[in-house]
Amino acid sequence: MILEMLTVGPFQENCYVIGDEVSGVGIVIDPGDEAARISLAVEQTKLEIEKILLTHAHVDHVGAVAALVDEYSCPVLAHREAEPMLKQAPTQAMMMGLKFGKVPILDGYIEDEEVVEVGGSKLRSLYTPGHAPGHLAFYVEEEGLVLSGDALFAGSVGRVDLPGGSMEVLMRSIESRLLTLPDETRVFSGHGPPTTIGEERQYNPFLTRGGPF
Ligand SMILES: [Zn+2]
What we know:
Blueprint: E1 2-8, E2 13-20, E3 25-29, H1 35-45, E4 48-53, H2 59-62, H3 65-72, E5 76-78, H4 83-87, H5 89-95, E6 108-109, E7 115-118, E8 121-127, E9 136-140, E10 145-149, E11 152-153, E12 156-157, H6 167-178, E13 186-189, E14 195-196, H7 197-203
Parallel strand pairs: 3-4, 4-5, 5-6, 10-13
Antiparallel strand pairs: 1-2, 2-3, 7-8, 8-9, 9-10, 11-12, 13-14
Residues 56, 58, 61, 131-132, 150 line the site of zinc ion.
């Protein structure tokens, strides 16, 4: 499987280009900014982009969606609970002193435990709210990797002070849906470097001793 990580925009958000080299089919997850750079990376992989998936609808994860839809004419998919926040992308941007262009539209919804096929690869969605409404992680069992969005980071967890955030809900999501994956599972987050489930289980201060303090 092809997996490219691009760190984009002022929030240093990780966008992922994922594809199956056999079929040449690819998807983009969380194109947050810098559409031109993402499309250049796609070009280098020679993948045919079939879908755009969103882990959640925070403005730093969706800024390049509309431009890529124009380029690839592909559907944009996310959990239905993420939709209201997506519609508020310009307001979210304004609150951070940023401008937002065209607001992307969801073409379909991804339910919990839904399998999204990318050529021969299968991504299973894991409903992991707490950081943002309708947050999804995507697990690729055959590759032993999970795209954790902003639920789980190397050494940290997602912030919960934005609308719809809840530490209690986030912790439950992480414990029941992410920490239940095998220790060797590689974790690719929405921000920061990759890690593994085992590493986080053992050392993440938010997940050990019942809290960071
Ligand atoms: Zn976020």
